[in-house]
Amino acid sequence: MGKDGDLVATRLARGCRCFGVWRDGELAGYGWLSLESEWIGELELEIKPGAGEAYIWNCFTLSQHRRRGVLRALLAGMRARAQSEGMKRVWIGSVAIPAERAFGPSGFNPALTMTSVKFAGFHWLQVQPADGADQGLVAAAHHVVATSPRWYLRRARRRRH
Questions:
Q1: 53 in helix, strand or coil?
Q2: What is the CATH number of the domain that holds 71?
Q3: Contact call for residues 151 and 124 (beta carbons, < 8 A)
Q4: Model pLDDT for residues 120-145, shown as the tens digit of each residue
Q5: In principle, which of 33, 41, 53, 102 could form an S-S bond with 49, CB 3.0–4.6 Å?
Q6: For residue 1, what are the CA distances in angstroms to 5, 26, 108, 128, 150?
Q7: What is the pTM (predicted TM-score) of this model?
């Protein structure tokens, strides 16, 4: 779990669940699933999934397994498990990384686009609806992250979770 390895016990104690993908007897990737509030460090926002909702976060594919469908399999499996347990909606976020290409094939639809920049102790965040997103989904996404379509400028806050 790299630099966040010391947080595993804390995450499990608060009810977060960790899922993994194994290839040839070796851990290839992992991700976390939460039903409660979680801090999104890259965006400096808290997400609060509603009843019947979950949030997938902190997914990682080990370098030797990248570009082999590990993230796509992980997301599809986590989403299917959450839905089999009664979750009606599963949220996931990204900060414009190449891996987000796995989101659509794993059953996720974009709701919001966020641009995040940290500079000189400040955090600038722009939030807007994703192109072509369903307006009901956009409204629900704004609700779970307590935002509206606009720009935010705040003092940067570091928080480990």
A1: strand
A2: 3.40.630.30
A3: yes
A4: 999 999 999 989 999 999 999 999 99
A5: 53
A6: 5, 14, 25, 32, 34
A7: 0.88
